[in-house]
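Title: [Solved] Large ribosomal subunit protein uL1 3D structure

Original question kept below for reference.
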Amino acid sequence: MEGEPEDDVYLKRLYPRQMYEVEKAIHLLKKFQILDFTNPAQGVYLDLTLDMALGKKKKVEPFASVLRLPYPFVSEINKVAVFTGNASEIKIAEENGAAFAGGTNLIQKILDDEIHSDFYVAVPEIMPELNPLRKKLKKRFPKLTRNSIGRDIPKMLELFKTGHEIKVDEERENFLETKIATLNMSSDEIAANLQAVVSEVCRHRPLDLGPFVVRAFLRSSTSEGLLLKIEPLLPKEVETKESHKEAA
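Solution (posted by the thread starter after getting help):
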């Protein structure tokens, strides 16, 4: 294999695929947009390949989660339904912008497609009564690990009304694709959103098993994917006191 190509025209098979620091990749995407006269507000996407192995033939289940991006890029508010049988909590939910709020009276309406929400959250006490909705809602069924079960209704609504959803492709099972920004945002804003997504993804597998993200590509709506140097973005395992003692 050769070293880095000296100009823009070269045989790809003779050179390893170039890897870019995040800042350089964003700079190139912005440059491509100018050179190609494409939409300056087009989407910026992050494509992640994940190591789903947990050991002992177990795997991380394809997951979905919601996070608050440091720099949101959409103005639409998500519709959130709140499950609670408590009248005062229903009032709190409505005052904080819930699209729907109620108890078991909502179940049949959801099953009949009379009401639909982007996200569903619930207080712990009502969870046993929501089992009829498990198949209907699938990954949107309230779950502790998704922060959609809790007693702080305003906090849950704040997250899910403006939250950004990421999820593993159910067919490919180890691939996650998500829009993280628009190209007309500043480079720092795009980089911050990218880091937030990577950090959220890495919560779904123990750090001591090694890197969860094995490949990452950054691209815009009209560009090719640029391979990122992912290691600087990954969380580092916290050293324990014992490991410090061993090192000493």
